[in-house]
Protein 1
Amino acid sequence: MTQKNAIVWFRQDLRLADNPALNAALDAGHAVIPVYILDDENAAEWKLGGATRWWLHQSLTSLQDDLREHLIIRQGDAASVIQALIEDTGAVAVYWNRCYEPWRIKRDEAIKSGLKDNGIDVESFDGSMLWEPWQVLKDDETPYRVFTPYYRKGCAKSEPRKPLDRPDRITYGDHDAVMGHVDDLALMPDIQWYDGMAAFWDVGEDAAHKRLQDFLEGGLKGYKDDRNRPDMENVSRMSPYLRHGEISPNQVWHIAKEYAAANNIPDKDIDHYCSELGWREFSYYLLFHFPKITWDNLQDKFDDFPWDESDSEELKRWQDGQTGIPIVDAGMRQLYETGWMHNRVRMIVGSLLVKNLLIHWHKGEEWFWDTLVDADLASNSASWQWVAGSGADAAPYFRIFNPLLQGEKFDPNGDYVRRYVPELKDMPKEFIHKPWEAGPLILQSAGVKLGEDYPEPIVDLKESRERALDALQSTKQSD
DNA sequence: TGAAATGTTGGGGCG
DNA sequence: ACGCCCCAACATTTC
């Protein structure tokens, strides 16, 4: 064989179909050496969180299977690992699909120029975006800061790239390098808290497509309205698959559009679903153009916001789902149990933390980073800033959710609360979102003693709402 | 991708 | 029949 070896570096694209880097390596006539590198060294403060690591373990196991045990698995500084692998395998080229986290961009640029200086052919591809961030700018060539014009005017001009088929056949390169094993990465948590996640999710490329199909058949019709209902099955739950690249947004976009066209799905439903993919794009877009959003307020005027740093017990109660506000506790417990939370509920729990409790959005960002299987630097940062009001196109400062009304509106029968807060399962729906207003007879017949079986509310909603408005008003005036 | 306060309207009870 | 009041129901504004 005269084929030369090429490293295909898998990163956040753990799939074989619609993988431009893999396809390009094959099209160039190379024999493929697939590699995964866990690079926590360069990730600095954004080392993978616990739930993400659990997912990654399953996902790499699945990918290893799909690659017929040819995937080399390593950890450490990616530049050093790749350099060593080039020496061990005689690879003449390295291919990857681009990532957009600031630390990865910096690292990858250095790797690319270093390898090129040594005569290695390095090529990177667009495998994770519908529209790459630098392609979309306002007429004055500056980036959008508001979603709707970004999406309607900026993105909609061009249809997203059509996905590539899975290669018919992959030729693997011969080499003597040590293969490594996913267990070497020690991704599985030390403590046994992932049984709920394992029960809730099937991981891997095939599972991603199955989940998408289930959503299209069971949840796309009515999506625009019922996507807000945590008690229903009308959201796609594609986020962890997209996060790890087990499916690309291009695949989701085009598969969903084709399904909608063939099955009389109302325009409003499919369009709204695609716009949610657009929100993911917008998050990456913001991270690319404003890399500070991972930690600094996008709007400077929030820098002197009077966060309450006094009571860490409140944060703990929020994390544990023991706030005494049922819709919030249901969400936080769903998160801990499944590694995922319904989007509507994410907004509700975020609003409570940041506005009613006046706890810095960083605390929420960090908890979500560690507990979400879809923890994604772009989406997590952009969304927490959105909730806090400090971000782009953010909720106006006065938009404070009332979790009681939100619960009654979006979980009208209380089924979602009953599922995740079982101590309230016998509460009548009239009071399930406000057990503190139920009379003693109702509480007794539901078997609930407030303060014992289920907590009293962590804050008075009306009082804390006014306190937040005052705080936000003071910030606004000091601007 | 809010909520609460305030304003407006219109139907029905009633003198 | 009419005016007055009450108060949902809805609309607007304000935070």
Protein 2
Amino acid sequence: MKATLKDIAADTGFSVTTVSLVLNNKPSKIPEGTKQIILEAAQRLGYRPNQLAVSLVKKRTDTLGLIVSDVSNPFFSTLAKGVEDICRENGCNMILCNTNNMHKCDLNYINMLVDKGVDGIIYGMAGDSTLKNAIDSCNLMKEQDMSFVIIDRYFKKLHTSYIGVDHLMGGYYATKHLIEMGHKKIACITGPLHLDDVLERLKGYKKALKEAGIKYDSKLVFEGRYNMESGAAAFPWLMKTKCTAVFAFNDMTAYGLYIEAKKNGVSIPKDFSVVGYDDIYFSKILEAPLTTIKQPVYEMGVKATEILIEAIKNKKRPEEQFVYQPELIVRSSTRKFE
Amino acid sequence: MKATLKDIAADTGFSVTTVSLVLNNKPSKIPEGTKQIILEAAQRLGYRPNQLAVSLVKKRTDTLGLIVSDVSNPFFSTLAKGVEDICRENGCNMILCNTNNMHKCDLNYINMLVDKGVDGIIYGMAGDSTLKNAIDSCNLMKEQDMSFVIIDRYFKKLHTSYIGVDHLMGGYYATKHLIEMGHKKIACITGPLHLDDVLERLKGYKKALKEAGIKYDSKLVFEGRYNMESGAAAFPWLMKTKCTAVFAFNDMTAYGLYIEAKKNGVSIPKDFSVVGYDDIYFSKILEAPLTTIKQPVYEMGVKATEILIEAIKNKKRPEEQFVYQPELIVRSSTRKFE
DNA sequence: CTGTTAGCGCATTCAC
DNA sequence: GTGAATGCGCTAACAG
């Protein structure tokens, strides 16, 4: 059985208070002798403080919660790694919650994390979240007085601490690249259209089109779900559009396209060009290494955690926002069209 | 501020006990009227039980710890998903710990998890673990009376609960396939050679070779580290061996090979055949979809969690072992050699 | 039917 | 220098 303060008090003959004092290295005038006796006993009995009890009285758990929509997507597992590394540096733990893109899970997990008394939450909302859903989540956390920073997906109206990427520019770069390669008929496969970041990418897409004097055609837009399956599902549609290029709103979607293209004997980039979004580390080893928009995911995880921990230390709500600029990575999935 | 039992007791005029009784739906003869009053107050004040306090007295946290060596490897993130899904089904939480393949982190995390009072640990040991390291980890958990099941990597001498795969057969299938394709000079890029599963795969490799009357040549064995970097590092060596085929001990290693092959204008499978191991979901969309040995990772995560939770329920140490059979998935990275 | 009492393991204030 | 008392928020015997 695990040794408690009481056990080692009984063992040494000192009181629980004294033991607690020396074990926590508190400034007090306890003679070296006593200290040694207690330290030795603690060592011998293999004493480790019960963090549940410590947390209960200190009202701090040194634990952060991370909510993401899908860990099996490397985008999020890389993000989780960033969070975890900073947690470790700060003597923190991380509780990882995977919502499988269901907003309902978001709420459940928030409650669970609050109940467990985590010091703060890094919140990556589910893919099916509407603005209203997001507001619900935020309110839930605010009501319970929980510090949090939102990461990745976001709604401008939320006015909370947030780490993200300038997706308007991302969409713009992606589309502009395609245009510069000579493409005029450019389709796009979006993520869920109620998401702000999707709308931003779409804005970027339109902006680039407009600049090039190409008319926006809503028939060339397919609403996907940010995963391989929906990319694959979009393929037949894509073939019918007679487009020469497509902008997939994330890399996973592009992968779905790759799979179907291969099945159907369609060549990328010979038959059509593809630009992705995220720069997952697999993108460079694809048949045609994927041209994509890079998001600094790991750094985002790091930054969010730093902001959160800093805020917790100072006992104030995190307020900071930080928007990274995306970067176009040109590889071989796009080619000149003439 | 969060409402406590006391608050709602004060609000309703009943005692804390009574409130606790009705809120926990305990069998007791409390009149409906009182119940309603208390329930209403709880609702109104937004009461949620503080799990720290509950855990402290119940000596149960409904939380499991999962220790893995690298979440950004889809093998482990898929495993984590399996664990998480079963946790959710059982009203459990999961604390994810990522060790970056450092045994020292294993020990730290075990201590942390014990301190936090998790009910059990699913332990995927770090890649740099020796048998002695593994024993240390197990002893640490046993000393603290912690239930655990080991997953993925293992040492037979450990005699603990364990979920894994028959890697001897895996290595055998991989090599045999290559032999059946007509290859005679087959290299392999292993994982860290002190790991049991690596040695098993190697045994399988030798077994297949022997059956085919091919002499085992230690010069055709390269010790990798189970990641893309070491696969890439092995490439120049591989070219010098003049082999016609290579068995990469995991898919990530194979990916490293793909990257270098592409850089150097070497074609897979034209110039040489590759078999991987794991069947990560990216393997099928590679330039030459990877022939590989499939491990049922998700199921393994599920199984381990089920065993652990079941054991916890029955208040006994998990004992069960379960070894899955791997499966050869033939795709296009291997071709007939004549 | 409901309240009193005790205690989970620890930190902390205040006496002695 | 050290210890008794109190409380964190909750559950669980045991009375009444």
